[in-house]
Amino acid sequence: MTSELGSFARRTIVERKPQIIRQVIEDNDYPPGVVQALETFREEIASQPMRPLSEHAPDIAFWNGELDAYRGKTWLEVPWYFAETYFYRRLLEAVRYFQPGPWEGRDPFEKQKRQQEEVAVERLADAWVQIADVEPEVAFEALLHSCLWGNRADLSNYTVRVQAQGGLTAREERRNILIDHTDKVRKLLAASLQQVDFVNDNVGMDLLFDLALADFLLVQGWVRTVVFHLKDRPFFVSDAMPKDVQATISLLQTAPDVAVQELGARLYGHLEAGQLIPKDDSFWTSSLMFCHLPPSLRADLARSNLVILKGDVNYRRLLDDRHWPHTMRMEEIADYFPAPFLVLRTLKGEIMVGLEAGQAEALAAEDSTWLINGKRGILQLVIQPGGR
């Protein structure tokens, strides 16, 4: 809840959300009317009740229906995940994202995303030299762990200062993986699977290593088809949309480093061959938890041999964003999920399950911010009894 005094959840609303609004104004040449709408929205977050959406758009009934449960509440009196998701929907209303005119479909975070991607592609060249020259088993581990630590780079969360690491340097951080199923994941994938799905998170290093791992799985023949599940609209600042996948692959194809160019060319080939399939769905940008997967999306994911869930928000949605006991088993909480899944998460939120007795207490004694500072991660494979 955003009402939890002293919590990271509360701080994201009090401090981070107004910062995001200020950055959006700075990064875009919006007319005075849009700027005023953003400023009014910022004032509302500070002290006023949450207001319903008033524009004409297809999702109005859903969002205002969800808001009804909290009518009259301020932004500091509601569930954290609802506050965050509704913030981004209201921001899109303020910038006229869904309205006909010059700002329709214009990503308010475009400038930040492109900067993140350009820096990430430059940094990838150093890591890629190392990965390209090692045997597949070592390369797989490096890519898998880079997918985990690349998730540290999150533009919606400025409090996480630890830099993303990639390549073989990721092996040095294995001590910071609190749940580490690397070997189980390798065995599962190396047995050759028909389809692996990623529920992606951020652009930049995060998406780059998702793409690099997808390329590895396809080239090695470990997987026949990789599906990326992306956002259908701007969300959490740096969350990846299909257009961001295209932009990232284009950057790879024109990078100075020849090996990185070749990676970009292969990824473009995977897209053209239908082996890498980008999809989006409005569920991923909704306030609903994973236990409320719509039937069509549930059936889609059920066809997958493995779903790779990236990032803290997907983890929170698995757990209904609740404070479970740290020793509770993920298999019990998420037994509703329609396919085997792998969680790649750096810790940036105040919930965590699957630990041994006493482990959370020891971590708290060592580091009071262990749940939110992005230093630690989990690489957790969950296969339900019977293979689901």
Helix-strand makeup class: alpha/beta
N-end to C-end Cα span: 31 Å
Secondary structure tally: strands: 7
- Which percent range describes the beta-strand content? 5-15%
Estimate nothing, just give the exact number of structural domains: 2
Annotated CATH topology of the largest domain = Rossmann fold
Task: Write up what this structure looks like.
This protein is globular. The chain is built from 14 helices and 7 strands. The protein has 388 residues and is of the alpha/beta class. It starts with 7 loop residues before the first helix and ends in a 6-residue tail after the last strand. It folds into 2 domains: 8-94, Transcription Elongation Factor S-II, Chain A, CATH 1.20.930.60; 115-387, Rossmann fold, CATH 3.40.50.10880. It has helices at residues 8-27, 32-47, 60-67, 80-94, 110-132, 136-149, 182-190, 205-220, 242-253, 258-273, 295-302, 311-318, 330-333, 359-366; strands spanning 177-180, 193-199, 223-230, 276-280, 306-310, 341-346, 377-382. Mean pLDDT is 92; it is low at 155-168. The chain has a 7-stranded mixed beta sheet with strand order 1-7-6-5-2-3-4.
